[in-house]
């Protein structure tokens, strides 16, 4: 039966149960649904928008699991429906449908599973199913039919098409190229592999796994000793490896941007989880490339100077407009990372269209790249050899009719197949489920003996691809009755090949299964033993009746598909040069600063978590104004804050149109001039690259030849500079076909991601100018090339490409420049530094000033060769600008000359003037920095306006420059661990007796919690022994909290915030007797403390743990912007008597916020609350959520229990903070550590009583 509840917002929640619900059960559901009213009717009239009946949403999955955690039985599905006035109301047909009334049949699917088909007409089946099989592949399948003496099944053909699609098997990169009638010596893949053969560097694994691994340093692993039950954290040294990966999800993001980008992010994270026999993802990157968004001003008209958007007429977009794609795709990628718990620490954005020579180029088929870095143990970096009898295990969610045929459909032009086929090929995202699967993998990798034999992620072709790769070396059989089925109408083909996300496949020896299952149960990670390896080199799926819908030799699946031959002719294309007049320089600058590629990216960074894990040492936003200026992301490998990983991106597709060789070289060069600001352990020898190729192959004459030239140029350049490319991906159908026959080709693009070990994360150079008049700025040109404007943002803003593009003329000189800058960083001689790329030198100089509230620059270009000021300012030749103190100026110049590196002194800070004074010979001009900063910021505002609500984007645009981060410390704060008697190395000498005597704290987490490790370490560093407690420990009674004196409810997205933040978590406490008893007894004791951060703060409010004496309860509500807010800002600690914060009264401290529902609703007068932290500014975004009284944290009347939305545990070290006073950069810790020390001292005293 289905029971309807009407919420306060008038939506309807439909709840399906297998029995008539009791009054008590209805009352519990009403509470869960926010005091929704049960409807006394089995059907409702009116129009409603809701999910498609055949698709159980991730929202429903989480909601049902919440009811299970509340001990409610028999509830199978929960969905939400929204009333609308007309059947024409706007909705997303991919995810939703229109309902004319709601009744007892809304979940009924009148559809039986389709029977297994024996396919007699392969050619017809290929076209009907959108399989993109070539004639040669069809002939190969006919050959298999003869070998097996039977027609192939629909599952076998469909599966073969997916696992042998261009998307999965990279046939073009492994194929033979014949250009101008001549067969090329090497395949594209061999040219990429050549880079590692010639320069293996630290590579341990390349081209054969989900990720590439390079040797890393010895680091500290901080993890619970036994993760099958509640246990204490321990530190141990491990020899690490560093992983690098980047994937594109272009087709899915074009079709359905949110889920396309979200599942792209999730899939790339799973790749890093599945490296070797398991590894740890740590930080992500993202790139978005679309056609022009054609933004409108507040008056509905196109803003001035954006006429470059008129170069092509607006198309009848197949699925979404470019603006919708930019917003929804970045929402999807951000949402997945936010909920999974992966920070996104660097990225890029490009919009582009061009028409010339009767050719149309535009990113109508978009590029969405998700990449990242991670790490693992050297012990686990290679997969083990499967043995017959290994158990095949699937971890993750159920099978649904989603993501069918994604591999094959994404391998052809978007628009070639029907909307139905293309929509069905897109997956849906459930990051909370993936986090559960990850927690299991993490636990296994952290054990002294990892039981995993092999591991792969589920992506294209679902079970078929994943499980066949697991057993490829020996064969295996899968029992289909053991696979979890969320949709009972799935056919065998759909069960085998659907791409339901968030699943991992593992091989486990049978003797370890019970232990692995125990961890999975604790983490609520669904785990299924679905088959075993056989040793017969055969692979099959078997139904309960013994019928095998898939039954082939492994060699037939993978071994002998036809070789791809690419034939093309070289075509020379020329592009008109850029015409300009230096008299219009400021107008040109204003145009360039508005291009999405150059303009402020705050609309991207303000909604994505950049602090989770507590290991982020460098993210995008810099300076006291926290503007997105850094192009280098850095994470620590452990909490010691020394060794780390850096990553950066580069691309140059506009230049690549004029010269594919230059496009490749510039892409590598940009990535390296971005990463150069991190001190690498062995300089350039530390680096590895991922090259992701997006190209419109077979779209027009000359494109395949251009790809070959581009790959060869990248290979040659990387070999010359000694850098390997051990990983990457290709997406070679980058064109979009419209119903009228028009085809729009996306420019051939290579995106280069660099990664490498950092020797000291505290030495990473910032791009923010230091306002010291006793310093100078120097330009170092890495290119050894004439300044050229072809392929530049300047040319793009004038609707040109140009033939004359820069490149790197001398690879050896490039290396000399790179290594010289590295040495200057290691010697501490660089105050600030920024690369030169999109927008040229003038943009670099302006950006260095933007994040400051005062000061400017006096710029003189006389020392730069040439007499064309426009070329000097807007050319995008690879290079950098460094700021050097006069104290070290002579040493720096002498050193550069010793290294044979040229330089030009170009500028001096002017702390007293907020202008950029520019001169070059007779040319003079003064530029208003603040005015140009607003021009640069405006594009971000226009995009933010369409993703934020209640006018918050306008307030952000108005206030961003008025709210600098402020810090004020206690006078006696020294910034040393010794001040607090702390020792980060105590694990080396601590005895069991010491541990027994130490104060005990516990971090408490629920499924979806993602901020537990950084909190545990903050407590550990402060002197606590820290216990890891999962809600299943409390619900089962395994943990009672009797031996701990402090509990911390950690941040994250418990239950994905379904039904409200922490609502389901609260229900697990309120409606489970053992968990409730443990909590009640803890709070009844007088020797206890508690802390709730972010999601934990929301939980404490939901459970009314802070002010139970108040008549009106505190609540945490949605941010006023109605979106996730991520920011590093400052809070003031008022006079207070709390245990943790009393000694910090009067301090102003920097801190991270990362939440979607952080607005304190405080219905009582302010003086009735014990406020412990207030946001420094009353206006948004300084008050990021609109909290009453600007409150960021409150505590109980006795000061023992504290609830706070910002993350102090992510700000205990200076390197974690988005900005920290320069004169205190030697501090070991920040004042926030004092809060944890105060807690420990209080517990020590309480235990004496």
Distance between the termini: 57 Å
Give the radius of gyration: 30 Å
Query: How many H/I helices?
Result: 37
In CATH terms, the superfamily of one domain is Class I glutamine amidotransferase (GATase) domain
Structural class: alpha+beta
CATH level 1 name of one domain: Alpha Beta
Oligomer: single chain
Describe the structure.
29% of the residues lie in helices and 25% in strands. It is an alpha+beta fold and 1249 residues long. The chain is globular and about 85 Å long. Among the domains are: 2-102; 958-1248, Class I glutamine amidotransferase (GATase) domain (Rossmann fold), CATH 3.40.50.
Précis, in short:
The protein is of the alpha+beta class and 1249 residues long.
Task: Give the helix/strand layout.
Elements (H helix, E strand, L loop, with lengths): L1 E5 L5 E6 L5 H10 L4 E2 L5 E8 L6 H12 L5 E10 L11 E7 L19 H8 L5 H14 L5 H10 L2 H4 L1 H4 L1 E4 L2 E2 L4 H11 L4 E3 L6 E13 L6 E18 L1 H6 L1 H17 L6 E11 L31 H19 L3 E8 L1 E4 L2 E4 L4 E11 L13 E5 L10 H4 L9 H6 L6 H16 L5 E6 L4 H9 L5 E4 L12 H6 L6 E5 L4 H10 L4 E7 L4 E5 L7 E4 H5 L6 E4 L16 H10 L7 H4 L10 E3 L2 E2 L4 E2 L3 E5 L7 E7 L2 H6 L1 H16 L11 E8 L8 H19 L2 E8 L3 E3 L5 E3 L3 E10 L16 E7 L11 H5 L13 H16 L5 E5 L3 H11 L5 E5 L8 H6 L4 E7 H13 L5 E7 L4 E6 L2 E6 H16 L7 H8 L32 H6 L2 E6 L6 H10 L3 E6 H6 L9 E4 L13 H8 L2 H12 L4 E5 ...
Parallel strand pairs: 7-24, 12-13, 19-22, 30-31, 37-40, 42-43, 42-44, 44-45, 45-52
Antiparallel strand pairs: 1-2, 1-3, 2-5, 4-5, 4-6, 7-8, 9-10, 10-11, 11-16, 11-43, 12-16, 14-15, 17-20, 17-21, 18-20, 19-21, 22-23, 25-28, 26-27, 28-29, 29-34, 30-34, 32-33, 35-38, 35-39, 36-38, 37-39, 40-41, 46-49, 47-48, 47-50, 50-51, 51-52
Helix pairs in contact: 2-34, 8-23, 10-11, 10-14, 11-14, 22-23, 26-29, 29-30
């Amino acid at each position: 039966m289905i029971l309807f509840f009407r919420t306060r917002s008038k939506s309807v929640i439909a709840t399906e149960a297998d029995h008539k619900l009791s009054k008590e059960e209805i009352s519990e559901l009403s509470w869960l649904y926010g005091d929704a009213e049960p409807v006394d009717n089995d059907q409702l009239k009116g129009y409603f928008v809701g999910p498609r009946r055949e698709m159980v949403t991730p929202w429903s999955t989480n909601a049902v699991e919440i009811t299970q955690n509340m001990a409610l039985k028999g509830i199978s599905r929960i969905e939400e429906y929204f009333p609308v006035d007309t059947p024409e109301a706007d909705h997303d047909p991919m995810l939703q449908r229109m309902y004319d009334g709601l009744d007892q049949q809304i979940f009924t699917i009148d559809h039986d599973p389709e029977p297994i088909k024996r396919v007699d007409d392969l050619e017809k089946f290929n076209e009907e199913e959108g399989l993109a099989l070539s004639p040669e592949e069809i002939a190969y399948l006919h050959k298999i039919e003869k070998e097996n003496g039977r027609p192939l099944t629909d599952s076998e053909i469909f599966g073969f098409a997916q696992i042998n699609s261009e998307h999965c098997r990279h046939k073009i990169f492994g194929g033979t190229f014949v250009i101008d009638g001549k067969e090329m010596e090497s395949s594209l893949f061999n040219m990429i592999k050549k880079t590692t053969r010639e320069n293996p560097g630290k590579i341990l694994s390349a081209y054969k796994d989900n990720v590439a691994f390079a040797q890393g340093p010895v680091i500290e692993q901080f993890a619970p000793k036994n993760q099958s039950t509640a246990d204490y954290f321990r530190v141990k040294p491990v020899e690490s490896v560093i992983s690098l990966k980047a994937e594109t999800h272009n087709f899915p993001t074009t079709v359905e941007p949110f889920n396309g980008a979200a599942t792209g992010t999730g899939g790339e994270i799973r790749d890093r989880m599945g490296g070797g026999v398991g590894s740890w993802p740590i930080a992500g990157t993202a790139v978005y490339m679309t056609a022009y968004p054609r933004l409108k001003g507040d008056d509905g008209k196109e803003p001035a100077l954006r006429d470059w958007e008129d170069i092509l007429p607006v198309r009848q977009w197949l699925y979404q407009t470019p603006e919708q794609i930019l917003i929804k795709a970045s929402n999807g990628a951000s949402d997945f990372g936010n909920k999974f718990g992966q920070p996104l620490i660097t990225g890029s954005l490009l919009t582009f269209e061009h028409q010339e020579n009767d050719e149309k180029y535009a990113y109508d088929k978009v590029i969405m790249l998700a990449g990242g870095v991670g790490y693992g143990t050297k012990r686990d970096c290679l997969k083990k050899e499967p043995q017959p009898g290994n158990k095949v295990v699937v971890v993750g969610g159920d099978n649904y009719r989603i993501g069918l045929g994604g591999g094959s459909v994404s391998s052809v032009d978007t628009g070639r197949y029907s909307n139905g086929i293309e929509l069905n090929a897109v997956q849906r995202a459930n990051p909370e489920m993936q986090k559960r699967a990850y927690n299991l993998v993490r636990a296994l990798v952290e054990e002294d003996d990892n039981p995993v034999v092999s591991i792969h992620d589920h992506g294209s072709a679902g079970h078929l691809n994943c499980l066949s790769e697991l057993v490829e070396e020996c064969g295996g059989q899968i029992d289909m009755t053991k696979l979890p089925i969320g949709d009972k109408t799935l056919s065998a083909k759909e069960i085998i090949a659907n791409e339901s996300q968030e699943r991992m496949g593992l091989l486990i020896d049978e003797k370890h299964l019970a232990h692995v299952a125990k961890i999975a149960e604790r983490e609520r990670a669904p785990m299924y033993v679905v088959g075993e390896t056989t040793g017969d080199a055969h692979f099959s799926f078997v139904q309960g009746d013994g019928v095998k819908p898939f039954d082939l030799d492994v060699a037939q699946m993978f071994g002998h598909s036809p070789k791809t031959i690419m034939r093309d002719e070289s075509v020379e294309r020329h592009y008109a040069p850029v015409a300009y007049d230096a008299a219009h320089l400021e107008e040109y600058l204003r145009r360039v600063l508005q291009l999405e590629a150059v303009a402020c990216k705050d609309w991207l960074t303000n909604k994505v978590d950049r602090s989770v894990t507590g290991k982020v040492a460098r993210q995008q936003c810099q300076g006291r104004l926290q503007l997105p200026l850094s192009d280098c992301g850095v994470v620590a490998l452990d909490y010691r804050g020394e060794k780390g990983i850096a990553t950066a991106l580069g691309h140059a597709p506009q230049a690549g149109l004029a010269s594919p060789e230059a496009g490749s070289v510039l892409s590598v060069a940009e990535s390296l001039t971005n990463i150069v600001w991190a001190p690498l352990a062995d300089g350039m020898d530390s680096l590895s690259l991922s090259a992701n190729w997006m190209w419109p192959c077979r779209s027009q004459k000359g494109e395949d030849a251009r790809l070959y030239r581009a790959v060869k140029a990248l290979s040659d350049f990387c070999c010359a500079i000694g850098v390997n490319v051990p990983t990457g991906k290709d997406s070679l159908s980058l064109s979009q076909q419209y119903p009228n026959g028009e085809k729009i080709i996306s420019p051939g693009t290579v995106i280069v991601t660099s990664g490498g070990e950092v020797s000291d994360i505290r030495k990473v150079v910032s791009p923010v100018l230091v306002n010291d008049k006793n310093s100078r700025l120097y330009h170092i040109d890495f290119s050894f090339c004439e300044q050229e404007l072809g392929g530049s943002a300047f040319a793009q803003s004038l609707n040109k490409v140009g033939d004359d593009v820069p490149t790197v003329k001398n690879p050896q000189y490039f290396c000399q420049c790179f290594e010289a800058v590295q040495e200057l960083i290691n010697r501490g001689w660089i105050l600030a530094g920024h690369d030169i790329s999109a927008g040229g030198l003038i943009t670099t100089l302006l950006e260095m000033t933007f994040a400051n509230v005062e000061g400017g620059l006096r710029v003189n270009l006389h020392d730069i060769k040439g007499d064309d000021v426009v070329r000097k300012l807007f050319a995008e030749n690879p290079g950098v600008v460094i700021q050097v103190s006069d104290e070290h100026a002579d040493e720096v110049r002498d050193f550069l000359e010793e290294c044979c590196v040229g330089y030009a002194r170009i500028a001096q800070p002017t702390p007293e003037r907020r202008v950029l004074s520019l001169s070059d010979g007779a040319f003079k001009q003064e530029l208003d920095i603040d005015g140009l900063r607003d021009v640069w910021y405006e594009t971000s505002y226009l995009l933010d306006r369409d993703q934020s609500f209640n006018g918050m984007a306008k307030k952000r645009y108005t206030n961003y420059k008025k709210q600098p981060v402020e810090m004020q410390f206690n006078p006696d704060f020294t910034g040393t661990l010794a001040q607090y008697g702390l020792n980060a190395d105590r694990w080396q000498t601590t005895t069991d007796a010491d541990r027994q005597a130490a104060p005990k704290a516990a971090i408490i987490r629920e499924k979806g919690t993602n901020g537990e490790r950084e909190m545990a370490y903050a407590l550990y560093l402060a002197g606590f022994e820290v216990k890891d407690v999962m809600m299943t420990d409390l619900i089962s009674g395994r943990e009672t909290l009797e031996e701990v004196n402090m509990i911390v409810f950690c941040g994250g997205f418990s239950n994905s915030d379904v039904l409200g933040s922490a609502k389901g978590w609260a229900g697990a406490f309120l409606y489970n007797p053992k968990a409730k008893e443990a909590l009640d007894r803890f709070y009844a004791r007088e020797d206890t403390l508690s802390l709730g951060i972010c999601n934990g703060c929301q939980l404490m409010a939901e459970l009314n743990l802070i002010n139970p004496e108040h008549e009106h309860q505190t609540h945490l509500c949605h941010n006023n912007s109605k979106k996730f807010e991520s920011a590093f800002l400052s809070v003031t600690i008022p006079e207070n008597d709390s245990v943790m914060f009393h000694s910090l009264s009067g301090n102003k401290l920097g801190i991270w916020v990362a939440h979607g529902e952080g607005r304190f609703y405080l219905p009582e007068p302010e003086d009735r609350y014990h406020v412990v932290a207030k946001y420094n500014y009353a206006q948004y975004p300084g008050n990021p959520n609109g909290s009453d009284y600007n409150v960021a944290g409150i505590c109980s009347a006795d000061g023992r229990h504290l609830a706070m939305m910002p993350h102090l545990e992510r700000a205990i070290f200076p390197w974690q903070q988005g900005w920290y006073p320069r004169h205190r950069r030697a501090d070991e810790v920040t004042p926030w550590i004092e809060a944890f020390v105060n807690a420990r001292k209080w517990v020590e005293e309480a235990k004496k009583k």
